[in-house]
Amino acid sequence: QLQFVESGGGLMQPGGSLRLSCTASGFTLDDYAIGWFRQAPGKEREGVSCISRSEDSTNYADSVKGRFTISRDNAKNSVYMQMNNLKPEDTAVYYCAAVNYGLGHEPPFCTHFSSWGQGTQVTVSS
Description:
Helix content: under 10%
Structural class: mainly beta
Number of strands: 11
Order of helices and strands: EEEEEEEEEEE
Distance between the termini: 39 Å
Shape: globular
Largest sheet: 7 strands, mixed
């Protein structure tokens, strides 16, 4: 079973930045395309960003495009998401997961197939 550990969340003021990390537990992460997802209180979980296995392709939800950047370091068995110019509407629990890259009907065009971890809380508030 694929398991991920998310970290790096916290409380940030609007306009601030955070860097989330996603590490693999017990398997080689570079065998998979990876995506970040988030779930805000009272809302459904939504895709935020995805990166292909070879790191040559990324996709983003329209709401974060130009502000968030997904990257991966296969040598460190990790995927990251740099979040800049944070907005209150970015407040959510963020999760990473293995994904089918290029599928789905809307950006970021990836669908998860691994189970969810604990996630990391991001709160943007003044």
